[in-house]
Hints:
By secondary structure, chain A is of the alpha/beta class. Chain A contains 10 helices and 13 strands. Mean pLDDT of chain A is 88; it is low at 296-301. The relative contact order of chain B is 0.14.
Amino acid sequence: MTDIIRTEALGKSYGDRRGLDGLTLDVQPGEIYGFLGPNGAGKTTTIRILLDLIRPSHGRASVLGRDPRDGGPALRRRLGYLAGDFTVDGGQTGSELLTHLAHLRGGVAQQRIELLAARLDLDVNARIKSLSKGNRQKVGLIQAFMHEPELLILDEPTSGLDPMLQQTFVALVREAKAAGQTVFMSSHVLPEVQQTADRVGIIRDGRMVAVETVETLRRRAVRRVEIQFDVPVASDAFAGPANVADVKIDGPTLRCSLAGRADALIKAAARYPVESMVIEEPDLEELFFAYYQVEEVPHAA
Amino acid sequence: MLRSVFSKTLWEQRRGIIGWSSGIAAVGVLHASFYPSMANPDMAAAIEAFPDGMLEALGFTDITSSAGYLGGATYGILGPVLIIIFASTFGARAIAGEEEAGRLDVLLAHPVARWSVLVQRAGALVVAVAIAGIAVFAVMTAAAGPAQYAQIGVANLAAATVQLVLLGCFFGALAFSVGAITGRRSFALATVVAVAILTYFANTLGPSVDALAWSRDLSPFRYYSGSQPLVNGWPAADGLVLFLVGAAFVAVGVLGFSRRDLAT
């Protein structure tokens, strides 16, 4: 039992609505685990169970070898948590809040707080209610990272951060990994986790649909492709290439989706003079769809 | 001020505490300044015209004596009403209000036990209400000479004020506990309003309606002022009842809160 996080058939019902339906996952020491799923899939529910903010209806969870229910303050001392919507009393300054939270943790070096604030370019002396959503989230990042916890549990951590700060965040997460910390991070968009995560678990409707390395995921992701040719193309010219589906040909324009290697499609396209080519970044919804199709094969057979 | 949940709570509520304390104290001064004009025979005659039961229901028994006047005015209606509003809004906000605002997640994800958060916040409630009490006591004592009610004595003023603080804590703890169990500020405040109105009339009307006489012993208002602390000094046993029942509310709140899910 060296798992940092382990859940077994974790379930949570809210009245008739089901929040989690038998979720099983494991997070290994030192890894960065991306927890992906659309809004409402059960990501936040899972995270709040891990922090003992809510209790599971059935199944079991363990965090750093302890049941969150029994772990109490001693367990939470070893965790850092950031909610997607970091909400605190707005009347205080960032510095007041961070000092208070550091006290609750039994003390954090003031320099560490200052260093993080400088890296994130945050004015800790401003009142929190005067801060933008992004700056407020920075306060949240600092309180999660400041005590260098063994396990970071981050729920949609970069919502509201601009791209430059997202890079700072990525650097923070990588440093945490380098220092031997484990990171469990949820998101509803793949790009947020694909830069850092070792493994990705995909949750939908309260169940784990797939667990993959990011590399595998990227290879399987469905991308939309649009190619403009100089001349009209025969309507059956793209029926053959591997990994290509949903082919639509409209005169000189080809639209299709691509799941996996692009080689066959490119070679097929190379038979014609190509004006331009656009391959979109993988869309997570389509990725889920791809996983659903995989999931449903046994039923169809 | 930022070391513990207890001190942080007081620090965050400092404006409310100062505002309410000065407000309640100001009401005390206002009442005191009217006393000289009340303590004359014409007023006594005017008061005679009211039916006894009505005056009792309003908390006035002997309006022309200083203890009777203050016991009916500052310590009779407005003081209790204001301190109950202050304490119960403080108590309802302490857990339920914070939870509804989504602010408890961050705190409870830290290494602090739920019971500890509740006990510390309940402690902050007691201190906040006590600060209001100290303000009331200070101005009532200072005004005693100029407003000609010095014969009540500092000890009896202190006794009545301690009872006022305990009454506030009682209802504050009720709001706190209902809020901690349900997570809803509105439930907490509605409970206080309902309980305060019912028990107030149980205390004042109970004696004049035989069938309801028993209900008086269930009323916190009877333990608050039934023994007339402005005349007879501090009723330690009555005070203890208010304190212990209030503490029991908090204990029930801790039990309920520790078992339930935190609202998102």
